Every structure is written in C-alpha cells, then in structure tokens.
Amino acid sequence: MPAVITVDIGTTSLRAIVYDESGRALHVCQRHNPPEYLDDGRVEQDPHSWQSQVRAVLRSVGQAVHDQVLQPACIAVTAQRSSLIAVDADGAPLQPAILWQDTRCAALAQAMAGHDAEVYRRTGLKISPVFSAIKMAWLRQNRPAVWAATHKLLGVQDWVLWGLTGRYVTDHSLASRTNLLNLRTRQWDADLLALFGVPQALLCDLVPPGAVVGGLTPAAAADTGLPAGLPVVTAGGDQQCAALGLGLLGPQHAVANTGTGSYLIGHADAPALDAQMRVSCNVSAVPGAYIVEAATLTSGAAQRWLMQLLGLDADDPAALALWAHEAAAVPAGSHGLLWLPHFKGAGSPHWDPRARGTLHHISLSTTRGDLARALLEAIAIELAEGLAVVEPLCGPVATVHVAGGMTRSTLFNQIQADVLERPLRRFASNEATSEGAWIAGCVAAGLAASHAQAFGRLAQRDPPAAYDPDPAAVAVYRLQRARARAVYDALAAPSLRAMFE
Questions:
Q1: For residue 144, cis peptide bond before it (omega within 30 degrees of 0)
Q2: Model-level pTM?
Q3: Distance CA 234, CA 164 (A)
C-alpha cells in the first residue's frame, strides 16, 4: 500500500505520521520538544534536539512501515517558521537557535522602523523581532565571532531538511517569513540583503513549496529504517500547510489555526498588502497563491501557563476536563473580566513587541472559571481583530475553518463562532498542518493530480462539525472587543507605557 510520511515540527512538540492515499493516519509518533523561555525575552533551543527527535519519530515510522507492509512514497516536512540557526562549514550549530518568539531584537527592530514601509512593500512583512532578517542583523552586530564562523543561516525546516538530505534548501513559503524574499519575484531581494547586512551566500537555495529537495541520505536511512533515496518534500511552512490542510484553496472562507500561537489566514491570488501594514502577506503552500495572515503570538502557550499557575497539569486529560467544565459554567463575557493575551508582545493588528499581558476588571468574586473563559474569549477576540483586516484584502468570508490543539474544546469553538460572527467548521482530525503536508506529498509523489483532489479525499472522509453564532453572545462579545481595544490603546499611550517599563 502506498503511504506518505509527514514530519510536523511545532514550537513545543513534533510528530511524524504515516498516511494512506485517502489521508487516513496509519501511525503517529509524537515527542515533546519545548524551547527555553528566559526572563530577558530570549527564547532558545538546542538545534540538535530537532535532529535527534526527528530521527526518533522516523525510527518509529520505519518500524510501522515494515510491520504494516507499506510502500513509502515520500517524506513531507513542515515546521515552525522564522527561527534562526547559524551553522559552520561542517553543518555544526554555532549557538542555540533563536526562536520566532524571541524578543531580544526588539530595540534593533524599533531602530529600523523607518524602513518598514519599503520592507513591507517588497516582502509583505514589517520589520519585527518575529522574522528572521532582524535576528540575522542582531547576530552580526552582537555575536561577531559567531557571524564570522557562519556558513549558512537556517530555519528549523531548513535544518531538518539538511539532516535528511544533506542539502541547504528553503522553499518560498518559508523564505517569505524572513523579510528578505521579494514577494513578486520570489527571489532574495538584493536591496533588502544590503539593508540587513546579510550576504546571499549565507542563505539557502530557493525552491517552490511542494518540491522534492533530495533523497534520504544513506546515514539517515540506516538510522530510521526507511529506504535510502526516499524523496524528501518541503511541504511549506506550518501555517501555510495548516491552511492547505483545511482547504484554503480560494477566498470563500478563512482559516483560524490555534496552537502555541493563533493565526487567522485568508487566500489571495496575488500579493495583497494592507496600507497600514497590520497583517502579513506570505507565499502559500498552494502553487502560485498567497496567504494573508494575522498572528496572535501566544494562545495555547498562555492557556498552559495559566493552568500551571492555577495548579492544573496542562497535560492531564482530567485537569483539562475540569478547566473546560469550570469555564463553560461562566456566561459569555466572563462577568466583565478581560485579558489582553500579549504575553510575548502583540501580533496583528498592532505588531507591538513591547506590549505585555493584561488582566482587567478582576475582583474578589473572580473565579478560576472566569479566568479560564476570559482567556479563551481574549484569544478569539485577537482572531476577530485579524479577520477585520484580512477580509477586506481577500474578499468576503462566508465560513471559518478551524484547527489546532485548542479546538479540541467545543467551548472554544463556540466562542470563536460567536466572536468572529461567522459559522465555523471543524474537521474531525486535529492534524491540519500534517494533513497539509500530506496533500503536498501526495501531489509531489504523483498520488494525487492536484491539491484540490487530495483535499477532497480528506473532506469526504471526515465531514466537519458545525458551530453557528449565538446572537445573544455576539452582542456581548462586540462590547468585549470594544473594551479590549480601549484598554490596549490606553496602555500603549507613551506616557502610561513609560511608567511600566
């Protein structure tokens, strides 16, 4: 039986899944692999952890392929975007990886803010600590010895692809998260390389998303039990793959993917830029297309933090059930309690790395359930603020397809429908990112004629659950959104912000 193997590398975990031609998961192996969050804004990780964990999950896959008498067609890889790994001429990391959430570059990004308009016009991204180029500039200025020894500057997906194939390659969807790729030419932009002080020789070769970048090396094959030369596909960045896995093939709907962070994503056939630069435009995992993306930097990570703070184990199903039960007992609006979930800065539409999490309207009657529900509402409000910018650029959105770890909660899905004021559809599988990689792998391996055909197999197998907005809750959340804007605007005022920094 033909099979497609996917490798999906998130911020806090990674997994490998074996799928058949219909998109049915035959084997899953997951490993937790979180970064280190430091008090000064650094978020770091040992790059070797990704290589070792990828080999571990692929060993499990190799055994499953043998036991189930499967014929693997390819390995399709997707990963988190915009992290930075500097390696020497032997491919050895020179320091810990700088993760996408890292804010050490905030001052440098602010100093370069005068270039935002031109950088956004070319790349679809403002200069931000989230993206790779400013991390590269910071490394050059602050770690000169590391910079002098650097042979290549890689993202996590690039690093893993090198470990599997021996090639330094990145695809357009990943490169479009660097601030260095010209959206229209889909090439590294010479003017931007000069602006950030990055020689093109330090960057990877560019290929389209969905391309076969090489074959599995003999060493990787021997370590995993998979055949040498097995095609390895760069499926696209994780959010692009999640959008593809949820069927974002046209403008009729949007995607909300909520994991460690949250992303509200729309489809565009050409670069679609916001005059106020509030959202990102990136290359899609769908050939020739683009996505318009509004990002919330902390969602699942904030829920995990709050649960642990309240004495609940976020990995314990019983604790999660208790959390959901207590939150569901609270009415819409959480008795006026309001979070701003800016624990690692604010993403779209503010792009404010200096913002911090805020809890407003707390009292002695506030319960754990109030805190839990208010956080879910806050994440949905951030998504709604993103939709308000994405929709005018991409066209009317009739429905929103949702995925991600937090959408296991029916309460959160209903809150999203009420806050977004759109019908929601959630597919039975919670693996949209891996399924997007599977779609790319099917097309690359010739197991499907098109992305639409492969997605159709998924949709036919798993009809989605539907959530429709509740008019009474919609009215409550319109007020909550207005209150959230007012609180943010007040705290962002220079005179008040100076008092807290």
A1: no
A2: 0.87
A3: 11
